[in-house]
Design brief:
With about 80 residues, the protein is an all-alpha fold. Helix content is about 50%, strand content about 0%. The termini are far apart.
Amino acid sequence: MVYTPQLSYHSSEMIRRLSWAFGLPMTKTLETIIKSFPLLVESSLVCSKCKNKTLCSSCVFSSTYEIKGTTEIMLDKISA
């Protein structure tokens, strides 16, 4: 399912500046932020309120999920 969210001007500005900082297009930056979010949220909080328990083995909030792709690029740049 593809959904195009409407961003506020302020949010769009933040993503644009992060994109410049990391040398990524805005779309990749936003995707990376979303993919990185599970690192910031306690998985038990999400799992306890989940309404679809059939996909746990592939869920980004499960304890066995591995970070791959552009998330690693941004995390490397943040920690540098």
